[in-house]
């Protein structure tokens, strides 16, 4: 089963995990054969939010809402169950000062043409 690990970090940038810790964590995921994808995200000042209301497309700068934590990156992992996903989330380098949201990836039946 695939799970998305959404990594949230303090919005003020007061705490950061060293890049070497992220490299070690990524290598551990790869060596365990559970990593599907993962990347860090650029800061919220580079974000754009798109909404369509009553047929009109509205584009605004920045994330949807101000918050104390911001989405800093993600990992997509393929593990047997939620317990395994929780175990990997607990090892994320920033979990000591940020948070990790874990969501199962929806699986859709293929549509026959």
Structure in words:
This protein has helices at residues 19-32, 82-89; strands spanning 2-10, 35-40, 48-53, 56-61, 69-78, 99-104. It has 113 residues and is of the alpha+beta class. It has a single domain, classed as Dimeric alpha+beta barrel (Alpha-Beta Plaits), CATH 3.30.70. A 4-stranded antiparallel sheet has the order 2-5-1-6, covered by helices on one side. The longest helix has 14 residues, at 19-32.
Question: How many whole angstroms does the radius of gyration measure?
Answer: 16 Å
Reported by name, the CATH topology is Alpha-Beta Plaits
CATH C-level name: Alpha Beta
The share of residues in extended strands comes to 35-45%
- Tell me roughly what share of residues is in helical segments: 10-25%
Mean pLDDT: 91
Work out the helix count.
Answer: 2
The total of beta strands comes to: 6
